[in-house]
């Protein structure tokens, strides 16, 4: 059986002016599949030679073969770039002559042209290749990771709760809680993360945050730089709102207060009801 959207092995049936025809195995030459010369990567074949090719459908719904290596296959997750948004859906660069289609119903969030996102590739009811951004159910449960491991994750689901679904190494299921990041994030972004916990079902809980001591040191340096750049004063103190602190310093109020406390113990700053001053 021919697997559309995947690699298949065929015998060369015959050579024509436009390319080689591959024996589809039905006994009817009308079913033979074209391997165009432009898809042969300058390789030449003889009748009965066996070739392994990728099969897809062209714009006229005909099966076509290529020796080019696609960026995605049916049943796989793939990080692909958006080429064009249209009224009927989105087209992705698949690395071959045919673009990969994302129907509008498979848009769970906005897809920006020239940006890459993680997609799941499938064969639709018509036998054509398609993709969806709804990848969560296709992520695997990871094995072999431990708490503290550094990983690369792709953001593939931003929920109203602000918790993030993360595809670890574009393959494994991860989640990042809203209190584990204080940076601006968007679907499709790739970010360096650290495993903070492993849930009972195997989902990896990740964070952008470094260790508490390292984070406080970094935050203290940022506070001092901010004070120096603003005449030695800032309108932030222990009573500032979490929202103002997050917007300015990309940190939680708890870490901010700890950082201020450390600087005060060192005699570098002082606080009052108006804010914080740098001690000269």
From TrEMBL:
GO terms for molecular function: DNA binding. Residues 221-278 form the Conserved virulence factor B-like winged helix domain. It comes from the Bacteria. Keywords: DNA-binding. Residues 4-67, 75-133 form the Conserved virulence factor B first S1 domain. InterPro entries: CvfB_fam, CvfB_S1_st, CvfB_WH. Belongs to the CvfB family. This is DNA-binding protein.
């Amino acid at each position: 059986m021919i697997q559309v959207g995947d690699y298949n092995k065929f015998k060369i049936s015959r050579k024509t002016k436009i390319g080689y025809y591959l024996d589809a195995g039905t006994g009817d030459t009308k079913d033979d599949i074209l391997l165009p010369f432009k898809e042969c990567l300058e390789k030449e074949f003889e009748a009965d030679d066996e070739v392994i090719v990728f099969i897809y459908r062209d714009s006229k719904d005909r099966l076509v073969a290529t020796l080019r290596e696609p960026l995605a296959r049916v049943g796989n997750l793939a990080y692909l770039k958006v080429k064009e948004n249209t009224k009927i859906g989105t087209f992705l660069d698949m690395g071959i002559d045919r673009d990969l289609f994302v129907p509008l119903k498979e848009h769970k969030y906005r897809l920006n042209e020239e940006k890459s996102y993680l997609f799941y590739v499938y064969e639709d009811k018509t036998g054509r290749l398609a993709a969806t951004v709804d990848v969560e159910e296709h992520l695997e449960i990871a094995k072999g990771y431990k708490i503290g491991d550094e990983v690369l994750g792709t953001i593939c689901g931003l929920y109203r709760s602000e918790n993030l679904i993360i595809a670890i190494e574009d393959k494994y299921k991860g989640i990042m809680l809203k209190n584990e990041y204080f940076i601006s994030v968007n679907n499709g972004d790739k970010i360096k993360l650290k495993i903070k916990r492993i849930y009972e079902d195997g989902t990896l809980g990740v964070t952008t945050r470094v260790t508490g001591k390292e984070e406080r040191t970094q935050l203290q340096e940022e506070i001092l730089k901010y004070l120096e750049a603003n005449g030695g004063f800032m309108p932030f103190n222990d009573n500032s709102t979490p929202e103002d602190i997050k917007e300015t310093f990309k940190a939680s109020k708890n870490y901010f207060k700890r950082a201020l406390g450390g600087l005060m113990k060192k005699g570098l700053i002082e606080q009052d009801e108006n804010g914080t001053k740098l001690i000269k």
